[in-house]
Amino acid sequence: MPPPDGSGAERPVPFRGGGFAPHARPLLGAATLVVLVALWQAGAMAGLIPRLFLPAPAAVAAALYNLALSGQLWLQMSASLARLAGGWSLGTLAGLLVGLAAGLFTLARSPSLSVVAALFPIPKIALVPLFIIWFGIGEGSKIATIALGVFFPTVIATVGAVDGVPRNLIRMGQSFGLSRAAIVAKIVLPGALPGILTGFRVTAAIAIILLVAAEMIGAERGIGAFVLAAGNLYDTPALLAGIVVLSVLGLLVSWLIGRLERWLLAWR
Description:
Elements: H1 26-45, H2 57-70, H3 72-104, H4 106-119, H5 128-135, H6 139-163, H7 167-175, H8 180-217, H9 223-232, H10 236-264
């Protein structure tokens, strides 16, 4: 049938099967941050933003420089990084084990998910006084707070990722005579890995939030303790410098998880 324009030529049909494939634009993201900081600086210089409540970015940068020069920045960062690494690793490992057990075994599923449903809504920061009684005022209570806060989301993400593996792939493996262990190793775990790694991004943010809260309650060193002390002294440049350090820490953790995703999911 000739086209409606009467030209007699067949027009090619545009390809519409590309699907949704958004791509990251790091330069665009960096440009957005630069513009926001520039507007902030301009507002402070014009007197539109009170410097006591929100100091200019230049003042925050000067405070960061002084902290790095005096060695206080690394002193506070090292304490926080040790707690963050210990608590997140402990909570993630326990959450993965329980989540995989609940996703793979019937006997483990209902007991595990019932405990998670009962305890997950409890604000973990409210348990810090109890952890201090159990583990003391030192590192144990802070690591336990972070680990418990990471544990429950990891269990939920892992169970959901395992449940999301297409069951036809599992049936195909069974039809080829694969053992249960082989199906788990070659089908279930690779299929669940994207969802588990997405859960890592969430739990990393939760770990940083709980780290700061735990350090504010009872710690002599750490970014949270530093921010609290700066706030008590109304030293807003130093306070915002600590917040900038936390933001950079979050970006660094997100970047590391992204690199881990590229390495583990290179097969996709």
